[in-house]
Write a structure and sequence with these properties.
The structure is a single chain. The protein is mainly α. It has two domains: about 400 residues, no CATH class; about 130 residues, Serine Threonine Protein Phosphatase 5, Tetratricopeptide repeat (Alpha Horseshoe). The protein contains 26 helices and two strands. Strands 1-2 form a two-stranded antiparallel sheet. The radius of gyration is 25 Å and the shape is globular.
Length: about 550
């Protein structure tokens, strides 16, 4: 008689978990070891580490106070800032070590995914499949290989820890266990406010697979009302995190108003983004660091997104009785995307691969719940599908990690897989200017201005080119044109102040740099520019 291959071996049950841990560690090493030789990506890495005076000083009480009291970089995530400070205190400015900390955190999150599935499904094979697919998925490279996305890793780490604590509480209620859940929830929010969705995910898991509803109740409301009521405990933390995040984004000017981006456009982008997330989850072959918000192409974006989203939701609903894990996983996916789907539009990106770090866990949980437990043809086919997906995603992951080695490679790849990407083109322009290729840069910048006259980036690049050629008067004109289009960007004021100072107008230039510092916060770049301009206020920089 055949036995269930997933039944724990009674003599040494921990050995099977050790095998799973070793398999995940080997995969992590093969895919991510080389990021230990990577440096900065000049997109947020400068603001988070290289140009951040507080972070560069390492861990200190002053830095901790700043982390909790600052809206620097249009965010409030004090635990993330503290983790970067701790890196500097331990490793100095050895960026390879900073990268490897990200890799280690990704490994820990993958282990928590394994633990979560073991606790929910009591299946080690399904747990290893889900954790391995999570670890190797190319959509997660952005969160791991990008130093500035430490916040994703920390948030997911505490988010999953809170869920594990909740499962323990659900099976054996205790005030200490609920306090542990609240502690981990707080730490997740202090890492990244996307964690506000945790109570809704706990409710989904309460329904399946924990099945905590009152089976004797005759209506869904009566069955699940006690579960909803107990989640009210999380409401103050959720409300506080939302309020602080909105304040931080509004202060930086990052939130787009409805006059700039209508509700219809936001709803359409949200719908298409959900479908494209599913498409890229399945076939993640055209990933970029930035997807611009703009016109939606019918054939390449709207149509595949509609097919992917409606088809997936229809399958989950149709299979809700036979395979309830599919619907629970889809609900996890959609719920956890709510804070970043763009209904409150922040910045000019339509979507981002890093936003899938937590939502993908729900999809994987639903998929691995389909893996048959008993030996047979169905189980063999399921394991074969897992192996094929692991190899396919692993190869794409390895390639995706390579794109993050240098900024020029990353931006070129992003420009190749997207349309009308002003961000990628501007970053490539910056590299041309830095390398002294001013004629080529000027030609590309003029094209950028002609195609996107309402955006500030092309004017900014033309001003930088004029400065590089020693023409501060011309640079000032371009920077003022950029300022008209982006009055809340301190980088524009910083460059404008330099152009004014180079013309000998010291008082005006220093005043502009002071205003830039008020917007930019603890910026080493602003400090250096003010010292170079001999502005007396530089000595009092934070």
């Amino acid at each position: 008689m055949q036995t269930d291959q997933t039944t724990p071996a009674p003599q040494r049950p921990g050995l099977q978990h050790w095998h799973a841990v070793m398999a995940l560690c080997v995969a992590l090493f093969l895919l991510y070891a080389r990021v230990g030789s990577y440096g900065y990506i000049d997109f947020d890495d400068t603001a988070y580490i290289e140009d951040n005076l507080m972070v560069r000083r390492g861990l200190s009480w002053e830095g901790i106070r700043w982390a909790f009291g600052s809206f620097y970089a249009a965010n409030w995530h004090p635990l993330t800032w503290i983790s970067h400070m701790a890196d500097v205190s331990v490793f100095g400015m050895d960026l390879g070590a900073h990268h490897l900390v990200n890799v280690a955190l990704h490994g820990l999150v993958s282990l928590l995914v394994y633990s979560l599935i073991v606790m929910l499904l009591a299946r080690r094979d399904a747990a290893l499949a889900g954790a391995m697919l999570f670890l190797v998925h190319p959509q997660h490279v952005e969160s791991v290989a990008w130093l500035a996305e430490r916040k994703d890793l920390l948030c997911a780490l505490f988010y999953l820890a809170a869920i594990l604590a909740w499962i323990c509480h659900a099976r054996a209620p205790s005030p200490w266990r609920i306090a542990t859940v609240m502690l981990f929830f707080t730490l997740a929010l202090l890492s990244k406010p996307m964690a506000v969705t945790l109570p809704l995910v706990l409710l989904i898991l309460d329904i399946w697979p924990l099945r905590r509803g009152d089976a004797a109740a005759h209506s869904p409301l009566r069955r699940y009302w006690p579960l909803l009521r107990e989640k009210l405990l999380f409401l103050p933390l959720m409300a506080g995190a939302c309020a602080v995040t909105i304040a931080a984004q509004h202060q930086s000017g990052a939130v787009a108003g409805f006059d700039a981006m209508g509700l219809h456009d936001r709803l359409l982008n949200a719908f298409v983004s959900c479908g494209l997330y599913l498409r890229d989850f399945t076939a993640p072959s055209r990933l970029g660091v930035f997807y611009p918000f703009g016109s939606i192409d019918f054939l390449t974006e709207f149509l595949p997104a509609t097919v992917a989203l409606t088809g997936a939701v229809w399958i989950c609903i149709a299979q809700r009785r036979r395979n309830p894990g599919l619907l629970a996983g889809m609900a996890w996916f959609l719920v956890t995307l709510l804070p970043v789907i763009g209904l409150v539009q922040v910045g000019s990106q339509a979507r981002a691969d890093r936003y899938m770090y937590i939502p993908s866990i729900g999809l994987l949980l639903g998929l691995v719940s389909l893996l048959p437990a008993a030996s047979g043809r169905g189980r063999r086919m399921g394991l074969a599908a897992v192996c094929i997906a692991t190899v396919f995603w692993g190869l794409l992951c390895y390639l995706q990690v390579g794109y993050w080695e240098r900024p020029d490679v990353l931006y070129k790849r992003t420009a190749d897989v997207t349309r009308n990407n002003v961000f990628a083109e501007t970053r490539l322009l910056d590299l041309l200017i830095a390398n002294g290729e001013l004629d080529a840069a000027s030609e590309r910048a003029q094209g950028l201005v002609s195609r996107f006259s309402g955006r500030y980036e092309g004017y900014m690049s033309l001003g930088d080119i004029a400065l590089a050629r020693g023409r501060p008067e011309e640079a000032e004109r371009w920077f003022r044109a950029a300022q008209e289009r982006a009055p809340a960007h301190w980088h524009v004021l910083n460059e404008l102040g330099i152009a004014v100072l180079q013309q000998g107008r010291k008082a005006e230039g220093c005043d502009i740099l002071m205003r830039a510092r008020e917007m930019g916060g603890a910026s080493a770049l602003l400090e250096r520019n003010m010292q170079a301009g001999k502005c007396a206020e530089a000595a009092h920089a934070p």
